[in-house]
Specification:
This is SLC26A/SulP transporter domain-containing protein. The chain is an all-alpha fold. The protein is built from nine helices and no strands. The radius of gyration is 20 Å and the shape is globular.
Length: about 200
């Protein structure tokens, strides 16, 4: 049983390696299985993904409501995730919504220069990091270095990765974060509106 607990974090990696190896041998795409396919290699050059100024000005005002809603949703998700992790795993300091707000603002301002996706708390990344034993900000640094190496050198390797295997790894990582006890308790207390939400 102890051996199983030690090897469990590596099960996702083993699944990826085996499915990619089989993909090169069997050629999944020739059998109707959806694969990841080509992934662009390299890291984007800062400011290279900015649209032309005329296009940017034309769409700026129309994007403001969507950007505000996305920012609010990302902030709420980040706070909810941080509070859940703090409750389940503890921490040195309680969660400060103001500090989270400022750090998300700084991170997203820096990310804008690279033309990347908006940054927020990620249920999938957090649960995967916890499953592998990560307990500090150093986990994010290691993950970032690994992603940079993959983007620079290893993207062709993932060509035959089945999308179903990729999705299964995400589901397995996130499944541990789902709280089934609270909805059951709410249902038993006749708090039907809270249960539905």
């Amino acid at each position: 049983m102890r051996w199983f607990k030690l090897t469990r974090p590596y099960a996702a990696l083993a699944t990826l390696v085996i499915s990619i190896s089989l993909g090169y041998a069997v050629r999944y795409d020739q059998h109707g299985i959806e694969i990841v396919g080509d992934i662009p290699r390299g890291i984007p050059i800062p400011f290279s993904l900015f649209p032309a100024q005329a296009l940017w000005r034309a769409h700026f005002v129309s994007l403001i409501p969507t950007a505000l809603l996305a920012s609010l949703a990302g902030y709420l998700e980040s706070i909810a995730l941080a509070k859940k992790i703090y409750k389940d795993h503890g921490g040195r300091k309680p969660i400060s919504p103001n500090r989270e707000f400022i750090s998300l603002g700084i991170a997203n301002s820096a990310q804008m220069l690279l033309g990347g996706f908006p940054m927020m708390g990620s249920l999938c990344n957090t649960s995967a990091a916890l499953m592998c034993g990560g307990r500090s900000q150093g986990t994010a640094i290691v993950r970032s270095v690994v992603i940079a190496i993959v983007l620079l050198l290893l993207t062709p390797v993932f060509f035959y990765l089945p999308e179903a295997v990729l999705a299964a790894n995400v589901v397995v990582a996130v499944a541990k974060m789902v709280d089934f006890k609270s909805p059951v308790a709410l249902f038993k207390m006749m708090q039907f509106i809270d249960f539905v939400v």
